[in-house]
Amino acid sequence: MEQKWLTWAKEIQAIAQTGLAYAKDVYDIERYQALRELSVDILANYSFESKEKIRLAFAGEEGYCTPKVDVRGVIFREEKILLVREKLDGHWALPGGWADIGLSPREVAVKEIAEESGFQAEALRLLAVLDKKFHHHPPEPYHVYKMFILCRITGGAAAEGVETNGVAFFAEDELPELSEERNTREQLRIMFEYLRNPEKPVILD
């Protein structure tokens, strides 16, 4: 479970953002703006990020506040899982990223695999929908749902991408240092369970 201060900051931010989307009264707008600033103060105090950076990343969105969606493609070959090395932190992750407007989850998984690994792929089935707050990721300002989609390679070849500088397959007992913001060791263990048991039902947090 995520830390209480982070949960509170997210909830305050969500109330403020949604309130600002619908408020008409000038005094209500001021109150919601004050709530938004309080959420920024909480994050700045506990995360040691600057308030300016937090405002841009966390408190700069408009409209009704909803969770963000992260889509990850899961590919196995010879009982090993496909991972890419992220340029941002030098650690490894399943290919994937934020869901794009106009694309289905299936289309996002295929696009991200091509962009980050060089492989062309076909999406086969949904494996899991996980809420990051339950899975020991590092603290972050967003409430995120993660979708894991089983795919298979149909063409292409391993190639670095704009955001990646490594592509490789790893056995379950040989996993490299992971980019835990993107995926945890526990989550990859769950993916290997689907390799051993293809009939395993979808996991839904």
From TrEMBL:
Organism per entry: Paenibacillus jilunlii
Gene3D superfamilies: 6.10.250.1120, Nucleoside Triphosphate Pyrophosphohydrolase
Designated name of the protein: ADP-ribose pyrophosphatase
A Pfam family it matches: Nudix_N
Keywords: Hydrolase
Location of the Nudix hydrolase domain: 66-192
Domain of life: Bacteria
Cofactors that this protein relies on: Mg(2+)
Keyword Hydrolase found: yes
